[in-house]
## 1
Amino acid sequence: MTNYIYTPNRDNEFRCKVPLENTEQLFVVDGTLQSNGIDAISGRADGGYALKVPKRSALERMLQIISVRRGLGSASCTNTFELGESASAKLLLCSHTLNDQRLETQENYMIRLEENSNLDLVIMQNEHENSLHDSHFAIDLAANATLKLHVVTLHGGELSNRFDINLNGKGAECEVNGLYLASGKQRISNILNLSHRVPECNSRQLFKGILDGEAITRFSGTILVAKDAQKTEAYQANNNLIVSDYAKAYTQPHLEIYADDVKCSHGATVGSLNDDELFYMRSRGISMAEAKLLQQQAFAYAALEKISNVALLERLTNLVERRLRGEFASCSDCNRQSC
């Protein structure tokens, strides 16, 4: 079979709409890594790709890995990330679909952070309404390792994200922020299992969702604090904003604590737009449609604002606004979801 080399500029082909200056870009097509000149990353024989950053090294620039589905049917792959001792990397993973057919994707990520390493990972999902995408992230942190993880789900048919994160070394820290936007008949699921296995580790989770149409979302979050994991600090929140009469949000936050010297909390909300805020804006000449949009933007921004790359934060904020305005649905080429 001929090896297809993806060239995003050819014949007005699809280009990811999250361009960033000073960023290395790689393309993965139907689970296969295309040619690249980056020493830290290579293709795997069984499909997918592997990223390895040696100890006391850092990727000079943010690495943007753009995964696109163009073939029919299903595709599966396993991707591995390994950061050596005192290594660091900033990664942006984007997923897209290039036709309006039924596409099924299964991705497994195995991520290991060695002692004192640092990973800043942003995941952006923007697929068409016939896509079914199942992603599983298994992440292990050694002592004093730091993970900052942001998940932004802009569009998709049936998307399921599962994160199993283990804090295995003293002093490890993890922050996970998620934003999901759902409309029509979309189905979005986020499952997060975070295990504090040793003392003196910190974790924070914030997931926010905006639901319209007949969309259904599910959030299940578990914080496990092992028997000897004293001095743990762990916080979890899931907030949902429903802007239609038919959308449904299911949320299940859960604490499982076996240590006694800890600071842990969790919470969940499912609500609608604030009538008092809408009235205030309307009384100052803002239209109802714009007032609703502004309230949704403010709700969503809390899940975005901790993205450290200013250019990326600005671009994602713009994409969220366009999504909330309904521009993706009316795009003349909306099957590519590249608005």
Note: The longest strand covers residues 73-83.
## 2
Amino acid sequence: MSQYKGKSVTVARPIADLYAKVSDLGQYQALFDSLPEDQRAQLQGVRFEADGISFQAPGVGDMKFKVAETKAPSHVGFVAEGSPIPIRLAIELAEKGEGSTEVLPVVDVDLPAMLRPFVGPKLQEAADQFGSVFTRLFEQA
């Protein structure tokens, strides 16, 4: 199993508030649709549903992650649907002081060693993109 950690970001919101927002993603589609066109283009076709998120991963194509596990208030785990290899995404939340939370996206992939040099950089890019997506949405919501 290979693990790719996205960029850790700090959001000026309480951990319980962010957990509620990460565990129910459907509320973000209207917000996403209201973003300026240039910001939506940077997020490459992200779509939100109550139990998951779909997007286009660079070099991989369409991906959909459904909520698979939750542990309030610090963890929400997603699993990729229809992926040729097992992929799991976790959003780890950690309190960083009063009203501030650190958000860390983590991607676990069961990837053969010979493919890691080719696919690994794209998976790291996707992990980093998750941090960017959630940061923009949490700042707006």
Note: The radius of gyration is 14 Å.
